[in-house]
Amino acid sequence: MSTNLPSESVHDQPESDRAITADQLLPPVEPPNARFIMQLFIVPALIVLCVVMVWFLFGWLASRGETDTSGILKALRSSSHARWQAANELAHMLQLEKRYPQLKENSTLASGLAQLLGETLEAGNEDENSINMRSFLCRALGEFHLEDGLAILMKVAREDPQRDVRREAIKALAVLGSSVRGSPLLRAEPSRPFDSTELVGTLQRLATDEDDLIRSETAYAMGVYIQDAVPIHDTEAGSRGHGTQEKDPTDSLVPVLTRLLDDPYIDTRYNAALALARVGNARAADTIAKMLDFETLAVSMAGEKDPRQQAFKRNLMLRNAIDAAARLHELNPQHDLSVLQNALKTFLDTAPAATLPAPIPQALLDLAEQALRTF
Q1: Which residue stretches of the chain have pLDDT < 70?
Q2: CATH no. for residue 303?
Q3: What value, to the nearest 5°, has the Cα angle with vertex 245 and ends 243 and 251?
Q4: Which of 159, 192, 225 is the last residue of a domain?
Q5: Could you tell me which of 324, 224, 201, 212 has the C-alpha nearest to residue 268?
Q6: What does the pLDDT look like over 229-247, one tens digit per residue?
Q7: How many CA atoms lie within 13 A of 6 on its CB side?
Q8: Neighbour-count burial of 249, counting CB atoms closer than 10 A to its CB (0-12 exposed, 13-18 middle, 19+ buried)
Q9: Which of 209, 31, 185 is closest to 106 using CA atoms?
Q10: Which pLDDT score is estimated for 81?
């Protein structure tokens, strides 16, 4: 008799012992209702749409250059923390001209800053915050394409008791002169000349200041205001080449710059020479040639303690000197400028050995070779 028992059929097993299939583990499938579709798709889409609209709104406002002028001015007059936060925000906005294209044409803001600078100057406070605020206001006013800050900047440059604030005012006058000359507003209104007798007189006065750095900054600023002048080929008198040309107020700056070529401070001499080179005054040739001499450059770099700043200043001066040499030759093709030609040759010969504080960039060597080929 066989001992094998027949296998038990699945259907014969108790229901509790049967295996559960994967389909039986899943919940029953139901068609999505309107609430589920709204939560899954429509609500997130609306959130994204709102974010995009807000982003475009801020971009549109920024592109229009709209600013809370009264809010900025109020904050700058408030407590120390709030005023410096507003100052930082304004400085940032002034650097983003493409994002705030109308900001530098905002006369209300420029006038308000000028008034505030005048008040802080009259207050005469010498604490660090007050000094820093006057310096900031000078820098900010220089960025505008308007003349609203011109008068107070001249006053600060002449009268502020702090040398560094006066320097910031002179720098701002230079930046303002450059930006206003290129301002679309003034190009559209050529009847509003920027040059003035008071401005020229202020620069002349500052050029005789006893402080070396004030004279140096002033020489640079003068170069900005004479850069659009008719080229001057008369090396002695500094007169304009066209006798029928109407006299420009900045003509009186040329003799001052010529005197500054003999200034005891080396950077003043260099800035004066670069300014005169812009208008083709060949009296600048000897000083420009010295700017290409490494021993002379070392004297100017001695004021910088950081080697990186020394290298930056040296390279900037070399580039300016090379550009000035080319400019002088371009405007004086018949004049003997062999001193510049020889200086360029010597520079190219000695530059490879000048490795301190850093090697001479190849771009400067290429620029010097290009300038030399024009002689």
Answers
A1: 1-41, 43-44, 46, 49-67, 181-195, 228-249
A2: 1.25.10
A3: 95
A4: 192
A5: 212
A6: 555 555 444 444 444 445 6
A7: 4
A8: middle
A9: 185
A10: 80
